[in-house]
Design brief:
By secondary structure, this protein is α+β, with helices and mostly antiparallel strands. The protein is built from four helices and ten strands. The chain folds into two domains: about 80 residues, no CATH class; about 110 residues, Pleckstrin-homology domain (PH domain)/Phosphotyrosine-binding domain (PTB) (PH-domain like), CATH 2.30.29. Helix 1 packs antiparallel against helix 3. It is rod-shaped. The two termini are about 20 Å apart.
């Protein structure tokens, strides 16, 4: 099973956190200046705002420190929470043996993998199975019907980019497996190793 290749866009996280912190602290500095320096001395107000020891120079230092801290916390959160959750989501409980009750007498299992199939608004968990004749998906839900497609009718198997998530701060979300057979609607699956699943199919149908 391939590990999720999630990575943090540290540059974007750092500068956004730093800029927000800098702006907020400078607003606080201006509020303090208005309370302690009368409006009749605008030049002094601006001088303190830009060059005061506890004004802009301090705001810049605080912003850089907060930016670095946010990056460290975000990376820790990614490593120890998001990656394990994504890995677990891509590897639902799987039971290839349940397929034998649906196969024809001259059909046998060649490959199988835990997967999720996108149906409606849900990602149903189950097992993706390739036999010598067909590709099957057997859902874990007892009341859901299995899906199958003849390998001979499969026109294309390709990797589909995952949608943008986490405001773009996390990159490398696992690609989806997209299958097309004739005029049928595209079937999309989430699997731990989409490139490995694409290799199940003939070169003429597989596209990465």
């Amino acid at each position: 099973m391939a590990k999720p290749k999630l990575r943090l866009d540290a540059h974007a996280v750092f500068w956004r956190a730093a800029i927000v912190t800098f702006c907020l602290r400078q607003l606080w500095v201006w509020y303090r200046i208005q309370n302690f320096i009368p409006a009749s001395k605008p030049v002094l107000r601006l001088w303190v705002f830009f060059f005061g020891k506890k004004a802009m120079p301090m705001s810049l230092l605080v912003a850089l420190m907060v930016g670095g801290l946010v990056v460290l916390l975000a990376d820790f959160w990614l490593q120890f929470l998001i990656r394990p959750l994504v890995k677990r989501w891509l590897s639902p409980p799987s039971d290839p043996s349940s397929a034998v009750f649906h196969l024809s007498p001259n059909e046998w299992i060649i490959d199988s993998a835990p997967a999720r199939r996108f149906t409606g608004w849900l990602w149903r968990s189950g097992t993706l199975v390739r036999t010598n004749h067909r590709l099957w998906f057997f859902p874990n839900a007892w009341d859901a019907e299995p899906w199958s497609q003849s390998l001979g009718d499969l026109k294309q198997a390709r990797l589909k980019p995952a949608p943008r998530a986490a405001w773009g701060f996390i990159r490398g979300w696992p690609e989806r497996l997209a299958l097309t057979a004739g005029a049928d609607a595209e079937q999309v699956f989430a699997v731990a190793d989409p490139e490995g699943i694409v290799s199940w199919f003939p070169t003429s149908a597989a596209h990465t």
